[in-house]
What does this fold into?
Amino acid sequence: MNTGIMKDRIPKSGIQNLLCWYDSHHRELPWRRDRDPYHIWISEIMLQQTRVAAVIGYYESFMKELPTVECLAGVEEEHLLKLWEGLGYYNRARNLKKAAEVIRDRYAGSFPEDYESILSLPGIGAYTAGAVASICFGQPAPAVDGNVLRVYARLTGDTSSVDQEKTKKAVRDRLVPIYEGCTPDERGKLTQSWMELGATVCVPNGAPLCSDCPMADLCVARKENRIGELPVRTKKKPRRVEERTVFVLLTEDCFALHKRPSQGLLAGLWEFPNLEGKYSMEETLRIVRDWGLCPEAPWMEIPYTHIFSHVEWHMTAYYIICNAQTDKLDRIGGITWFRREAPEDLTAVPSAFRPFLKLL
It folds into this structure.
């Protein structure tokens, strides 16, 4: 059994089979219409931790509003976060703007073409740098993500944990000679071929579609009946569970939101006032009175669970009608009152709290 990266290179014939397969089987996606580095960059950042089907609409709206690097560099953060609303991991959007500013100021608005310069931009890691460098500029720079790691592990029989950074680097290094043996045009197609094969054939969930794989005859996992064993993953720690009480404070025509701190989880986004812990109805009313509000009987109580990558919020939301307003809530640092008309149009409210807007 192979316990590391296989020593023999993937045959050139296998790479050619993969490239030919891509030509006739790839999905038509909006960011594949050209090799514009701005388009590829934005799509790759959006696709991190997000399904392709969910990204398409966001991508098209984003490009309509911010069609160039210059537009992105100059956009107000509040508008940018509104465009990003629902995609999560909002620092990705902030880093997009920071990188766009660097491209505008240091590179006169033209995307840098070499891997190291791309990698130096804010928010861009080895994977995204490889994707842009190879797809847009024909550089011999592999882009190694979860799809590529899975395909490579099964193809070669590699049993290194794909969750370890050293495995990603080893696979990336192992793929470089293959890219160097391709033409510049083939390099970009090869990057997209690996991605496409992992997304549609050698899939992450469920049985891979080996009968549709252009490299099935080379696959060690298939030959040795080890598909279910690969790729190897390090067992993840269970997510931390946090109880939170959410205060949906209402007056006749307004509701209250609180802006999160500029650092940490959901930094700088608007949320309903909330406190860690699960409070009873009576405790919740007492807290609201302590805040200087005059609550009437609560309107309703809604439980909701939101899952982040490392933590689960088990939330209990109390809709409380108040007959007065105050902007100063000492325990959370103040609130702002918004009109109740069209709450969905508000500036960025993270998906953890958006369900509560629907019942206003």
In short: The chain has a mean pLDDT of 92. The radius of gyration is 24 Å. The beta strands are 240-250, 254-259, 270-271, 274-276, 295-307, 311-322, 336-339. The first strand starts at residue 240 and ends at 250.
